[in-house]
Specification:
Distance between the termini of chain B: 45 Å
Order of helices and strands of chain B: HHHHHHHHHHHHHHH
Shape of chain B: elongated
Number of strands of chain B: 0
CATH class of the largest domain in chain A: Alpha Beta
Largest sheet of chain A: 6 strands, mixed
Number of domains of chain B: 2
Number of domains of chain A: 2
Shape of chain A: globular
Helix content of chain A: 25-40%
Strand content of chain B: under 5%
Number of helices of chain B: 15
Largest sheet of chain B: none
Oligomer: heterodimer
Order of helices and strands of chain A: HEEHHHEHEEEEEHEHEEHEHEHHEEEEEH
Number of strands of chain A: 18
Largest interface: A-B, 32 and 35 residues
CATH topology of the largest domain in chain A: FAD/NAD(P)-binding domain
CATH architecture of the largest domain in chain A: 3-Layer(bba) Sandwich
CATH superfamily of the largest domain in chain A: FAD/NAD(P)-binding domain
Distance between the termini of chain A: 19 Å
Helix content of chain B: 55-70%
Number of helices of chain A: 12
Structural class of chain B: mainly alpha
Chain lengths: 451, 376
Amino acid sequence: MIGGGAAALCAAITARRAGCSVLLAEQAPEPLRGGNTRHSRNLRLSHEAPTPFTSGVYPADEFWSELARATEGTADPVLGRLFVERSAELKDWLIEAGVPLQPIAGGGLPESRRTAFLLGGGKTLLNRLYALAEQLGVEIRYGCEIRDPVIEDGRLATSTARLDGTSYPSTPRAVIACCGGAQANRAWLRRHWGAAADGFINRGTPFADGELLESLLRQGVQPVGDPKAAYLVAVDARSPADDGGIATRVRCMPEGIVVDAHGRRRHDEGGDTASTRYALWGQRLAEWPDQIGYLILDARGLRAAPPALYPPIQADSLDELAGGLGIGSATLRATVADYNAAVRAPTDERDDWHTVGLDPPKSRHAHPLIEPPFGVYPMRPGITFTYQGLAVDERARVRLAAGGVVENLFAAGMIMAPNLMARGYVSGLALSIGLVFGRLAGEEAARHVRA
Amino acid sequence: MSAPEIRAEARRALGICDACGYCNGFCDLFEAARRRPALTEADLAHLANLCHACRNCFHACQYAPPHVFAVNVPRALARMRHQSYLDHVWPRSFAPLLNRPMATVVWVTLGAILLLFGLMLAFAPAAGMPTLDADTDAGAFYRVLPWTAMVWIGVLPLGWSALAIGIGWHRYWKLTRPEGTAAGEPVQPGRALWSALADILDLRNLRGGGPGCNDLDARFSHWRRRLHQTLLSGLGLSFAATLAATLYHHGLGLEAPYPVLSAPVLLGTLGGIALLVAVLGLGWIEWRADPAPLAPEARRLDRAFLGLVFVVAGSGLALLVWRATPAMAPLLIVHLGTVLAFFLLLPYSKFVHSGYRAIALVRESLDRVSIRRDSA
């Protein structure tokens, strides 16, 4: 197994239970193991009856149609069907493996029909699955990189394992690549985004460097998805360059206005108030000058804002605020004045505060910004994953661009997720892809080895 | 760390928790913290005492060290909790006892035993030591120390301790008590008290939302919860034994020592065994636990209290076993000395956590009751 997240662990446990000897090579040191599974929280799964962890029902058909719609028809229909159907097995598999799920009866969770929540989040899943893998006899190597794969005659002939500064030739009978996307690879991002890439913050593990993905593509593996695309979320610009996770999200755009580095508004902040707004703003910020935006709130907005990782930058006047941010204070004052002048109170119960004659408008929650102190959350695009991966068949075998498959090379998790989502995203999808295809790849690799 | 540094670190860690929220299924802490985004001094004291130190949120934390955020909620709250014990101890000048708990336990216990030896000699008839021979007749204990002396040894320190601990708990309650609901209407305290009592008996917040706690490491277990309740039962049985003995003495006119098959001895023996089992089990967990989520000052307080309970229960059982031998008199003095030390140190030991935690649970139940009412 190349990788150490949910997909690699499911594959390792499944192959080991099928009688194979298994080595799991995790690039990260032990305390930071598990890729972006460490930052995950919930998984999307179909179910025909309510469970303690998911309310109502979520038929596989409904899951499939939502997946197809959210990914704008990019999901492979064969893999997609297989995925939504096998997602129904995940709850029982996880519980049997000792991974605790969070019962909805305890409260504290959003309405959850489509996804089940991991009790304590992804790191608890990792702790349980690593313990199970060790107990079953999976050999685990931390700080171990797999490089230089060589594909000959439709087989992965060899690769190199690097551990503690020493290189070892590696020739297992089957390999499962579960080492994620390329979102932590600055060179990759610069190649596709140019200088804008330097304005991105990587929300997840710094070990998702895409090196193996790139070398496999150079070896003639069929790519899938879009190398230029990335899933971006608006995060606090003061976040660390890597690994800030869920807590770095900026959430309260509908409570204020968002201006660029010149102090001008560019989008309707009230247009999208659902959780989809995080990704919308991430994509927008990537196109803005210096990839930075400033969410500006007045005292009313600050009171309404949910808890955030960093406190807002505060000032008693807009001029002081603009000075601190390096925005022209005249422009910012004019932007706020135009906005305040355009604000209209609701006229009936179904109406909301909105602007009239403003471009761009603010269609909802358009309260005037008048009550000091004013506060600012600086925002940048936070990259979550990239959208290029390895094409696989319905047995999780990696496909070759020239046709056919690499018979002993399998892939699971985010390195092959673009087969199912070459764009778009829905909550809980990444973890479910890792779990379903990790198990599938483990079964198929074991079958290959034992044949 | 100074008190402001301890508060600042607890505030920083919980601020990240408020923005993350992944651990909110483990216990009541995280939703309680989200309801108090200001994290005032009173909020921090309340949250620290609501935390049962199960450590799940440390092993589950995506931001735990070596992550640059270095979030360690169990340790930050253990420090904060210890600070709240120091802040509420009465009299304030006794606070250093909580910071040097092992030395406190050793010296107070030795001092108490020496005091009782002195009393024994003072009350001894001129003929000298009365009890070198095997002596289990009725009233034998009172030939070592007169009954009235024993009563005063119990009543005086217990009275002092009840006063001191009551003042501490009362001050804490005043600090963290609810202001009343938004409507200004007080919630019915009855349901909240019942719910808090159920939480104490079940130790619901040590269930980790179902699978248990990370007692030793990232594995889940229910052992710490069970052993804590064993210790609580042991204290309860020992208290019941004392009540039974009082009844025998005053109601039935029977004088100790009592036969093995009597209520005071059976209850006391069961209580002593429960205490020993609990102390050894908790001590083993304490000894083997991953130290990363623990705070040294809190561990010292835990160890000292476990040690004190161990000598109280151990000397009591030893007295039962050897009461028909010449060792009876010194064992009785040692046992009474440890009990005297236990009573004296109630306000200056880990025992104080019981009140602070109970108050925190009542406060949480009051919040829950008022939230249910608001949403109804």
